[in-house]
Amino acid sequence: HMLSSLLSYYPFDRGIKHAGMQILLGVNAPGILVEVGFVSHVQEALRLIDDAYQQKLAQGVCEGIMAYFHG
User: Fold this and answer.
1) DSSP letter assigned to residue 18
2) Has this prediction a pTM greater than 0.85?
3) 65 torsion bin: left (phi>0), alpha (psi -120 to 50), beta (else)
């Protein structure tokens, strides 16, 4: 859902990774870790500071979470 909200930016799909991330260990509720870009990549860093891009990212994450619970 996040990528589909960003189609006009031609996002690169790195796929879904399943791993025991330290930050999510011990959490007693559903949890996700979303990687929205790399600040070390100049083009992505410029997108990440753009309000419209941030809004599209947030919308895509929200739609994905809603789809999970309603799907």
Assistant:
1) -
2) no
3) alpha
